[in-house]
């Protein structure tokens, strides 16, 4: 069984998030997702709209996702990979190269992002109303 692992904030869940999760699920048999906690988003410098509990519930409801767990810091990936027995770490290509240091324990894949949609852009459009 091939396990794929990924991480993200998934704020204001949109088609770009969905397409990425779909592409990641196609890489294996099981997809586990680390959803960034509200506290970790402060460290990432992201102002999130939707609280962690709701973001986690939305992502865990996606048919491509098998399990969700909290992402609390940058350094937990290596232990998560061991805990889940992950074979593949997949991220959108805006992270290209950033996780290559984990390639000794997992196959690292950077997948195309979905252009034209982002949480930042959604916030900008919504703020105009
Ligand atoms: N994404 C995408 N297309 C978009 C927007 C996002 O493919 N139009 C992807 C990103 O590349 C990322 C995932 O969706 O792989 C989640 O994006 P974010 O919620 O913005 O997550 P991010 O802040 O990049 O957090 O430790 C890693 C971080 O937690 C990643």
UniProtKB/TrEMBL annotation:
Keywords: Nucleotidyltransferase, Transferase. Residues 5-124 form the Cytidyltransferase-like domain. One of its GO terms (molecular function) is nucleotidyltransferase activity. This is Glycerol-3-phosphate cytidylyltransferase. It comes from Auraticoccus monumenti. The chain holds residues 1 to 129 of 152 of the full protein.
């Amino acid at each position: 069984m091939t396990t794929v692992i990924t991480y993200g904030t998934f704020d204001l869940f949109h088609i770009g998030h969905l397409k990425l999760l779909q592409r990641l699920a196609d890489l294996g048999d099981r997809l586990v997702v680390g959803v960034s906690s509200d506290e970790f988003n402060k460290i990432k410098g992201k102002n999130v709209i939707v609280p962690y509990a709701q973001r986690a519930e939305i992502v865990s409801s996606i048919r491509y996702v098998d399990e969700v767990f909290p992402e609390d810091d940058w350094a937990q990936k290596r232990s998560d990979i061991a805990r889940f027995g992950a074979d593949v770490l997949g991220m959108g290509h805006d992270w290209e190269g950033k996780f290559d240091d984990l390639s000794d324990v997992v196959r690292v894949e950077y997948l195309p992002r979905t252009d034209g949609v982002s949480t930042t852009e959604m916030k900008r459009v919504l703020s105009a109303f």
